[in-house]
Design a protein that fits this description.
mainly alpha, two-stranded antiparallel sheet, globular
């Protein structure tokens, strides 16, 4: 029984967002809702977001496990939040647009993306 409980504990740890990717006071569910409202799925395939099957941008499956954002930037919370808000300010030639988001929306979206493992 102890072995079974340890197995469940390990599974829970593997699916949780690592501490270094946790964003204080952000809400992944609100982020998922913002992704739907903004229409990110028109360009990206996004697990857990209904109708998000776009192929213009990369699939965001397993995003939380990626080392880089846009193939260049470190996948860290402060960078991801800035990327979600205004990617062209970080990489001018990116196809990712400047999105009309509040800081809280960008934080919530980043929190949701880090749940994708």
């Amino acid at each position: 029984m102890l072995l079974l409980a340890a197995g469940f504990g390990l599974a829970a740890c593997q699916s949780a967002v690592p501490v270094q990717q946790q964003i204080v006071d952000a809400n992944p569910e609100r982020g998922r809702q913002a992704i739907t409202a903004i229409g990110c799925g028109a360009c990206h395939e996004i697990p857990g977001v209904q109708g998000a099957h776009g192929i213009v941008g990369p699939s965001l499956e397993d995003f939380g496990q990626r080392q880089l954002i846009g193939g260049v930037l470190p996948n860290e919370p402060t960078v991801l939040i800035r990327w979600v808000e205004n990617a062209p300010s970080l990489i001018p030639e990116t196809g990712m647009p400047d999105l009309p988001l509040s800081q809280d929306q960008a934080r919530d979206i980043a929190a949701y993306l880090y749940t994708l493992r």
